[in-house]
Amino acid sequence: MHAIILFTLALHVLSGVFWGGSTFAMARTGKFPDRLVSSQIGASVVAILSGGALFLLLHTGTPGTMERVLGAGAIAAIIAAATQAIVVGRAARMLPMARPDKVAGLENRMAFGQRIAAPLLALTVVCMATARFI
Predict the structure, then answer these.
(1) Does the structure show a pLDDT above 90 at 102?
(2) What are the CA-CA distances from residue 25 to residues 9, 52, 71, 134 (Å)?
(3) Mean pLDDT on 109-130
(4) What angle do helix axes 37-58 and 65-83 make, rounded to 10 degrees?
(5) CA-CA distance, 114 to 100, in Å (whole number)?
(6) Does 123 map to a domain?
(7) 16 in a domain, yes or no?
(8) Of 6, 46, 114, 127, which alpha carbon lies 20 to 30 A from 95's?
């Protein structure tokens, strides 16, 4: 059981660090937002699924304050992933077929989606870091 928890935790942390870090970088720079979209979506799926697995493995019984705080962070992460998949993903799929005069608008839309997701992921990290102490 200990090895399963460690493996799941490693998956959760590694995918979450990539997802959050790339989101913050794309939100800040707005440069080449289409290059990491598929990797970000993959990392978000791994982070959310491994986070759910950790929750099931480590938090049994009646939910307390800690579980509610973790749940709020999970909801923020799911909203961030949905935003990236819908806003950023859709614009990234349209980019290769876009006319040259529409490219800048699509890139701005992708950066906007990243800027929505970034504070949601920051909230997620704050919830994970503080849940134990609230």
Answers:
(1) no
(2) 24, 26, 26, 30
(3) 96
(4) 160
(5) 22
(6) yes
(7) no
(8) 46
Question: Using one digit for the tens of pLDDT, what is the confidence trace for 61-90?
Answer: 889 999 999 999 999 999 999 999 999 999
Which residue range forms the structural domain that includes residue 80? Answer: 72-134
> What one-character-per-residue DSSP string does 43-110 give?
HHHHHHHHHHHHHHHH--SS--HHHHHHHHHHHHHHHHHHHIIIIIHHHHHHGGG--HHHHHHHHHHH
Q: Which residue has the higher pLDDT, 35 or 46?
A: 46
Assess if residue 49 is contained within a domain. no
Place of tokens 């939100």: 27
Residue 78 lies in a domain: yes
> How many independent structural domains does the chain possess?
1
Q: How many CA atoms does the CB half-sphere of 109 hold within 13 Å?
A: 17
* pTM for this entry: 0.92
Burial of 64 (0-12, 13-18, 19+ CB in 10 A): exposed
Phi-psi region of 17 (alpha: psi -120 to 50; beta: other; left: phi over 0): alpha
The pLDDT value recorded for residue 33 is 67
